[in-house]
Amino acid sequence: MDSAVYRFDESECRCSRARVPARWLVATPHRRLGIGPSGFGWTPYGLRHARQMGSNRTACGLPAVSWVIFHELAFVPGANGTCRECASVIAETGQAPGGSRGFGQKSAPL
Which structural domain, as residue segments, surrounds residue 55? Predict the structure, then answer.
């Protein structure tokens, strides 16, 4: 075996560049199997709340430690099936929602 050190050349990397994730993501206490934006898999079940990564509460203040965070779904205030209190808190604080993507559509990949 050759003891030469392999030098990594960034031009050889075929991975996608990291993008900024959505600020507010969809979080629910339950999930179910179904068709979602990325095909068949886990989808939110019940009222969709807004939650930021690293927080243990939703925007409306509910404790959500064990809740499922759907990293591929950006929270869009006012959409059907979303928490009105989360939407109003986001509007009051002036913090932008998950982005310009619609409810149930993919957010920027991590």
Answer: 23-93
Q: 104 near 56, Cβ under 8 Å?
A: no
pTM beyond 0.70: the answer is: no
CA distances from 52 to 12, 21, 33, 96 (A): 34, 10, 23, 12
Mean pLDDT comparison of 7-16, 29-38, 64-73, 88-97, highest-scoring range: 64-73
In a domain, 105, yes or no: no
More confident residue, 38 or 105: 38
The alpha carbon dihedral of 30, 36, 38, 41 has a sign of positive
pLDDT above 50 (res 19): no
Rounded (5°) CA angle 48-50-53: 125
Identify whether 50 is part of a domain. yes
Quick check: is 45 in a domain? yes
CA proximity to 23, closest of 66, 71, 65, 63: 71
